[in-house]
Write a structure and sequence with these properties.
With 200 residues, this protein is of the alpha/beta class. It is built from 8 helices and 8 strands; from the N terminus they run E-H-E-H-E-E-H-E-H-E-H-H-E-H-E-H.
């Protein structure tokens, strides 16, 4: 995509406890593709069970999508309530702090290596690292590693990082930070779980 002289790609962070972080990233990715840009959309910590993935992987030749995840979630001991834990059933692996499942660490490292190369290459106008903030929080990748590659990104490449619990050093390094704040959610008030086409 042709850029005006002096164009600089910025680093965005979409974080917070409220709904809409991935949704916002999908929206800006579609806007970039619509403007003639090329996008890498990489979803960390997500298996291939989300409805948006059916569209993202076939939407346009210039939107490259990949999910880096297993069909189970991970969480550190003490970070998830008993009620939430029960709702996951067998779909969650809980690990002691500092001891994340090696299979997940290796998978995130492999995916991030590809994402980092894309950020540095200049081939992509935008690289979306969906749920990378959660991956850092759950110790699957260090914030130092992510920061190093953000600093090494091609000048014109826009980078989007999503997920709850963005580390302070990531927030400090970003050019734009949006916090999605939950004011009210039907999960809690009505006891409704994830709904196809809205949450997954």
């Amino acid at each position: 995509m042709e850029r005006e002289e002096g164009y600089e790609g910025f680093v965005h962070v979409y974080t917070g406890s409220g709904k809409g972080k991935t949704t916002a990233a999908i929206g800006i990715a579609m806007r970039m593709v619509g403007a003639g840009g090329k996008v890498l959309f990489m979803q960390f910590m997500k298996g291939q069970a989300y409805s948006e993935q059916k569209i993202l992987k076939n939407m346009a030749p210039d939107l490259i999508w990949e999910a880096i995840g297993k069909p189970f979630f991970v969480a550190k001991e003490g970070t998830i309530s008993e009620e939430d834990l029960a709702s996951y059933g067998d779909g969650i692996v809980v690990f002691p702090p500092g001891e994340p499942p090696q299979i997940y660490v290796d998978m995130v490292a492999d995916g991030f290596e590809r994402a980092a190369a894309a950020m540095a290459s200049g081939e992509y106008d935008m690289v979306v690292l969906d749920e990378i903030n959660c991956a850092m929080y759950f110790e699957l990748i260090s914030s130092e590693t992510v920061l190093e590659w953000i600093r090494n990104k091609a000048k014109k490449t826009e980078v989007i990082l999503t997920g709850r619990m963005a580390p302070p050093e990531i927030i400090e390094a970003a050019d734009l930070v949006t916090e999605m704040k939950e004011v009210k959610h039907y999960f809690a008030s009505k006891g409704i779980t994830s709904r196809k086409g809205v949450e997954n």
